[in-house]
Amino acid sequence: ELDSITVRNKGIHTLGELEELTGMHGTYAAAIPFQGGSYGIGILSREIPIKYEIIPMPGREEKRTFIIAEYKDYVFCATHQSLTPEDQLLAVPLIEKALQNLDKPILMAGDMNSAPASAPQLELEKHFATLNDTTSCTFPADRPNQCIDYIYGYSKNGYRFDVQYRKVIEDTIASDHRPVQVIVQIKGK
User: Fold this and answer.
1) CA–CA gap between residue 171 and residue 96 (Å, rounded)
2) CA dihedral 163, 52, 127, 90 (to 10 degrees)
3) Distance separating alpha carbons of residues 130 and 95, to the nearest angstrom
């Protein structure tokens, strides 16, 4: 989740800055207008997506989005889910429907705003394998006491994900959440 050209971000297009610093490609989806710009989600990738789609997600307190970016050998999705458990549950079938016909390995990451044993996470487990260590807390960054950030592998289309490494990075400056890192080996059908 990130700002684009907002007052609190001093008018900076954050994903554009990251593109320049890393030489990577950014895919952005605005969720809401905010302070003269927008607030939304983004993906930073080495490859330019073949195509991408932005799907609105339920959000009573503010609009939410879901990005599906398709690359040559895989699909990567990002989301920032609602604070409301009912909206989080309503989002699961929307995500499943959007992914059900894709025949590539699919990874998804995001701030899900739900605890590992919550009803939304149990529903997601029917479609996804959780790849990060959910016993490592991610929020708030300065004194994390809960895990609400996840990386998943979509398990319904026959691909498997062998976790080689996983870590929550101790960073309190970049965000109010701690970054989650996972290295996986994808096993074919």
Assistant:
1) 32
2) 130
3) 15
| Residue 147 shares a structural domain with residue 60 | yes
Strand partners, 121: none
Q: What is the pLDDT of residues 92-117, one digit of tens each?
A: 999 999 999 999 999 999 999 999 99
CA 103 – CA 125 distance, rounded (Å):
19
Spatial separation of the C-alpha atoms in residues 166 and 101, rounded to whole Å: 28
SS3 category, 21: helix
Residue among 55, 125, 130 at smallest CA distance from 97:
55
Question: Do 66 and 146 share a domain, yes or no?
Answer: yes
CATH number of the domain encompassing residue 170: 3.60.10.10
What is the domain extent for residue 1?
Answer: 1-40
Q: Is 100 helix (H, G, I), strand (E, B) or coil?
A: coil
CB 186 within 8 A of CB 157: no
DSSP-derived 3-state class of residue 121: helix
Report the alpha-carbon distance of residue 157 to residue 127 in Å, rounded: 9
Tokens of 93: 């079938």
Could you tell me if 93 and 57 lie in one domain?
yes
Tens of pLDDT, residue by residue over 140-155, are 999 999 999 999 999 9
Which residues sit opposite 32 in a β-bridge? 39
Q: Output the pTM of the full model.
A: 0.95
In the numeric block, which tokens belong to residue 108?
A: 């998804």
